[in-house]
Amino acid sequence: MGYCLSLADGNHWLLSGNGKNAEFMSELAEIMRLKECERNGSLELLYLNGKKEKPDNYDSQWKVYESPSIRIIYNESSDKSICEIKSEPDETIKYINMWYSLLPIYMRSMSLGGLPFHAGLAELNGKAVLFAAPGNTGKSTCCRRLPDYWKPLCDDEALVVLAKTGEYMAHPLPTWSDYIMKRSPNTWDTQYSVPLSAIFFIEQAETDEIIPIDGRRSAVRITGSTDEVFMKLLRTLDTEEKIEFRKNTFNNAFDMAQKIPSFQLRVSLNGHFWEKIEEVIAS
Q1: For 168-215, how does the pLDDT look when each residue is reduced to its tens digit (9 = 90+)?
Q2: Would you tell me which of 16, 22, 77, 219 could form a disulfide with 2, CB atoms 3.0–4.6 Å apart?
């Protein structure tokens, strides 16, 4: 038994753990709105408590990503990934571990053409838009300022996956800082997805304005947004691994930029920036 996470790219995950992880797993599932289920041909993300176990036939194809409190063992060709929690964490580290443990899910979706974004996600009439920006530069504010007929889905990270139809679909992800910083807790329907219509890179300004970004510059900006998600991971990679990782990220970003329009969104303090967005996604 475990908790099921189904994504629009066809990846179906079972998040499971041993007895010591029952409370951890239950809270993670609650935050991500996952239901308990049995494994049925799913990919598996197995949570263990510091056992230092290695998969059968462990070889160079298995990649190890390590932080002081958690260890991820991942192989793109295997249906099982392992997350070893090294020690009993305090409240802050616990949520950082939850955040970091999703790495195999991101990596698997990236192998199919998807990318995680450091971005807010909002929906209007069945179309999704991303508000991408570094931390504390306006993502959450933009999501909060949207009028009632918009549907904000998340304000910090989103996972964009490539469906088998060739359409890019966006899933909301938790704002882990709400828990790490002990702000009001929330939950996110991470299995919900919406077709991605446009990407907006936020910039604070005196007046509202939207400026189209060409495909090459868009690919660079998309790559930068993904890098922000993987900031901790990139520190653990050697030079060769970093080059390979960035190459794969940019290739996905380049393909995405050919299909999804990107814009510089200049947002004023009191303007109605969403009206300009509505003009873009309605065309």
Answers
A1: 999 999 999 999 888 888 999 999 999 999 999 999 999 999 999 999
A2: 16
DSSP code string of 179-234: HHTT-------TT--EEEEEEEEEEE-SS-EEEEE-HHHHHHHHHHHHHHHTHHHH
SS3 assignment, position 265: strand
Q: How is domain 115-282 classified at the architecture level of CATH?
A: Alpha-Beta Complex (3.90)
pTM beyond 0.85, yes or no: yes
**DSSP, res 20:** G
Q: What are the Cα distances from residue 84, in Å, to 21, 45, 79, 215, 234? A: 11, 10, 17, 40, 19
Would you state the pLDDT for residue 238?
81
Q: Where exactly does CATH 3.90.228.20 map onto the chain?
A: 115-282
Q: Please give the structure tokens belonging to residue 201.
A: 């890179």
Q: Under a CB-based contact definition with an 8 Å cutoff, are residues 69 and 93 in contact? A: yes
